[in-house]
Amino acid sequence: CDSAEVGGLGAGMNVTVPFRWTAEEGDLTFILKIDPYEELRETGEDDNIFTQVNYIGSGPDYQVILQENTTEWVLNTQGTVDVVIYNVGEEDPSETPFKVNVTWTGAFGGGVVMLEIPVDYIPPGESVRIPVNWTPEMVGPVTLSAIIDSRFDRVPINSVHSIQVIVKDLPELAILTGSFNVDAPVPVTINTTVNISFSVTNLGEMTAGQFKVSVYDGIIDGASRISAPIAVSGLEPGEQVELSVRWFAGLPIGSHKLIIVLDEDDEVMEQSEEDNIWEFPILVDTPPDIKVSADESGVAPSMVTEGRNTTIWAWVSNIGKTMGRDVVVHFSIDSDVNVIAERKLDLLPGERVNISFKWSAESVGEHTLFIIADPYDNLIEEGAGESNNIAFLPLTVLSKPDIYMSENDLRILPDGVINIGDDVTIYATIRNSGQTDALNVFVRFYDGDPEKGGRLISFKPTQPSVVIERLEAESTTSFEVPWTPGSGGYHDIFVIMDLSNLIQETDETNNQM
Questions:
Q1: Which of 152, 174, 297, 337 could be a cystine partner for 59, CB 3.0 to 4.6 Å?
Q2: pLDDT tens digit sequence for 155-169
Q3: Is the backbone peptide bond immediately before 394 cis, with ω within 30 degrees of 0?
């Protein structure tokens, strides 16, 4: 209830009188009394009371909802979020406008998206959609919030709404650290073709679509491009792909700068477009120079015997400035086509490698050993070139020992009739007609054929055989063996040389006399 005083009112005049009143929801009967204490004398007193019945409503109730209008949020790239406002309350007869504030909060701070967005009065049951643009300033989870600022809002709790979005960084193409590789030692030999490989990776948080990669030698222009651009279908975050090109290392001698250009046609939007050019220096130098010589080769043992294993060895050197790859070395006898061994090796600049193999000689006599490096002329060489790729080594192959006795090499004394119990001496001469010494030649004497029960005649009581420690090549040796016949009758004396065949001989059939 409120009252107001009017100081006076002239004939035919009117006045507006304000009252203070706090409305409450529900039905209300409004009664206005003029001159309630009847202080004035009027011609009519019946019209001093005015009565009106009203209903007092609760007013509008604004509800806000944020809706993403961007499928993927990207750092430093503008996106849109929709602010949708509903009036779920009642009407506002004064149709009072209001405002909306939109803010963001991340792990390391926050800020304003848009402040005091003006919104006109919204009738009950209706809504309005307001698009708001926002450019994210940090990656990771970010909370977007909308808050209604209204004079009349029956339920303020639904006037705030928040959503969380994930902000990602753009793709970022790069050469994987340590992946650049040349399939030949550096320096690379001039005028050779090598394989260049490297891996491209995506360091960003978003997929990189199709792009092209080009490799240049020296400068970025069409004439310096090593090969056609390499097409990559795309890279997921963290994914990598290995690429390779074949490069002909031509002039000049010295340092070459290989340039790799990623996303050459700018097909991928990246975090940075300034780091897509990568440079790798590679040194190119003169060819290798492979050397072999007779002074750095040989055989062991120095005396080569037919049928026996002999080690043939040689030092092979690269006195050039670049690597010799897949260097073939042939060892041949008497001609370059009669190859007895082949070796293949890589030789770094200044490297010297010893190669060897076992060989069993078959032909007795004078021979020449050919040592040939790069027999197929696969290498381009510097310096002395191919003139030092061949060496000759004279080689004498000796025949194996041949142990035997001739008809007059066995004598028995005394001559004539020998009595039982007489002391008899057997004289023997053993010959070696081969060109190689025979070592530890065992000689046994038998009274009778040993294959038919002949008895062994001992050289000494504890030494049944004669042992010739060394029977030199093309020489003879003689010795005597005592014998006392133990029975009468005719006796055949047999001599067996190298009974166990421990000595490799030219003729193994003449070891019995």
A1: 152
A2: 778 899 999 999 999
A3: no
